Amino acid sequence: MSKYAVLGQPYKIRNVEIKNRFTVIPMTMGSLSYDEEGGFSDNLIHYFELRAKGGFGLIIPGAAATDYHVDPYSALGPNVNTNRHWQERAKVLVDTVHKYGTKIFCQLTMGLGRNYPGLPGPSENPVWRTPDQVSPAMTKEQIRQKIADMIEGAVVAKECGYDGVEIHAMHWGYLLDQMAMAFYNRREDEYGGSLENRLRCAREIVEGIHEKCGRDFPVGMRLGLKTYIKDYDKATLTGEEEVGRTLEEGVEISRLLESYGYDFLDADTGTYDSFYYACPPMYNPQGFMIPLAAKAKEVVNIPIIAGGRMQDYDLALEAVEKGEIDAIGLGRPSLADPDYPNKVISGEVEKIRPCIGCNMGCFRRCVETGEPVSCAVNPQAARELVIGLKPGEGDKKVVVVGGGVAGMEAARTAALRGYRVTLFEKSDHLGGHIVEAGAHAFKREIRRLNEWYQRELRDLGVDIKLEHEPCINCIRKQEADAVILATGTDEAHPPIPGLEKALPSLEAIDHPEKIGSKVIIAGGGLVGCEIALDEAKKGKDVTVVEALDDIMAAGGASAPYPNKQMITDLFAHYGVRVYTSTRLSEVTDEGAIVEKADGSKEALAADTVISALGFRPAPNLKEEWAQLNLPMYEIGDATGAGTIMKAIWDAYEVANSI
Ligand SMILES: Cc1cc2nc3c(=O)[nH]c(=O)nc-3n(C[C@H](O)[C@H](O)[C@H](O)COP(=O)(O)O)c2cc1C
Ligand code: SF4
């Protein structure tokens, strides 16, 4: 029996037995979730079926709208109460996951409040990141109507066969959260003022549901135990300048919610204003919220599911064994690997494809670009029926050149399709630039991803030829049916006087001992910023110089908001100086000369100047090899430097279409 078997043991929410400690916590998935009439699509039902098959004991799909009176046109898709087709398809979803012994709760939302334009809240507040727009205050009648719609939604959910409901949400700063916090709720009626008044909505909702659905139908609350906000749109990194919900208040709220009749808490942290706590990127440590959940657990008897960077199964095991939490909530890790629970319970943890906390395929697509949610490291996620793995077309031989992440994904996908695959890599190891990308202490999951790929390739029998740069004859001898060039990038060395005195970024990562105590980093893209953070955390004096008007914006696309917000706050915390709209004009023996947007120049002193000025596709032999008359594909960075997501998605698409 594996040491993680404890996580495979059942627990109870009210009278509902959940077969193990793994929960898919809610994620709104976007357009591919629905069919034309607003019912769950086959794609979404299949997505959850895979997670049920993968061992999740409880699934809570993303928030469903209930209000059809006050703000019915919220951003959250079809309405549970009015859309009969949604109800029919919900029954299909429920029956599908039940086949695997998995329970399913329906998350019902009261609304989004000031988080989205045009929606009302408890009091007038500026709309999130849109300070020139105001979210108006609701009337008492509107509040009561919304509560009634929530109760009606629970009745519908029960009729559809759901095993329980979760109330959305006193988390992420949504409407019910705004109602509960004095910072947003300055009402003078019985829905404002004291904590009990601010929780009145939550209380009336649960009491109404018990009355209509019976006391055995479980009702839980999505609850942020601490909000980490210091103002509208501003987070407090350390939590010390809290103006929202302190942990003490979060604990008291937990106690009150239990006394009102809530049967479980689905706990996390943060709001839209502090997105790096709500949807924590890789810079926030795994398991950071366990101590917070443990505090709430001290005062309640109902189960607590803890979510948000809970992918570390050792931390989770310890927390469950100590009784600090009852179950683990996995949002993004369930996108990255549908079989996460089965792999943990059986002890095959090294087979887990890790979520890398990049927020590129999930958060960014959901909140920033409006595209269907998926995953950087699992291109099929939530699109399994749309771009699933195709069976191979006969016995084919595929040659992949380059063993970085794109090459490894291409080799894996081709091998999974049943093709014979040879992978050539010129260095003595696999991973390419993800070796450097994973070198920082806060990038452990990237190292795990690299290990995962290598293991997969071994298990799939891919023929790996290290220290091998193939010539045209080598390729000919392979008798390949297709060649995939994943030859990656080299560092860019623009013609800047004295640049040879600078330490190239990859060398700086591989040899941090070469970096002095006063550092200038030229280039404020992801690579430069992460080196800056690592060095600043060691107590170094760090300056970042970026030619664009913002950091982490290279390639024309800003990094996902939580990641960018966190780096910015970490820089402020560790005293990293940032010069934007400023170019490196010369590297000198004393440091660097930089040129500002107005043309003025400034000499900055440093022991070390690190050049992190981007990457260019490495030269490859595509043109020479064209004479082989073989289908040849360039993927990943070979077509232009990009993210891990671009590399993996390119590779999957190409290798799945050969
Ligand atoms: C794309 C996306 C959509 C989400 N939608 C919801 C939602 O509908 N309801 C909710 O309570 N939380 C939602 N969340 C928050 C997640 O449930 C979870 O708290 C967050 O992803 C952090 O946990 P994780 O590290 O396990 O992913 C969403 C998160 C993401 C990334
Ligand atoms: S896109 Fe990145 S953060 Fe989102 S689930 Fe995938 S690996 Fe995790």
Provide a descriptive summary of the structure in words.
By secondary structure, this protein is of the alpha/beta class. It is built from 22 helices and 30 strands. It has an 8-stranded parallel β-barrel, surrounded by 6 helices. Strand 25 and strand 26 form a beta hairpin. Helix 3 (140-159) runs parallel beside helix 6 (200-213) and helix 14 (405-416) packs parallel to helix 16. The longest helix is centred in the N-terminal third of the chain and has 20 residues, at 140-159. The two termini are 41 Å apart.
Strand order in the largest sheet: 3-4-6-9-10-13-14-15
Largest beta sheet, briefly?
A: 8 strands, parallel, barrel
Outline, from the CA principal axes?
globular
The class by helix and strand makeup works out as alpha/beta
The residue fraction in helices comes out at 25-40%
The tally of helices reads: 22
- CA-based gyration radius: 26 Å
Q: What small molecules are bound in this structure?
A: flavin mononucleotide, iron/sulfur cluster
Number of strands: 30
Low-confidence stretches: none
| Percentage of β-strand residues | 15-25%
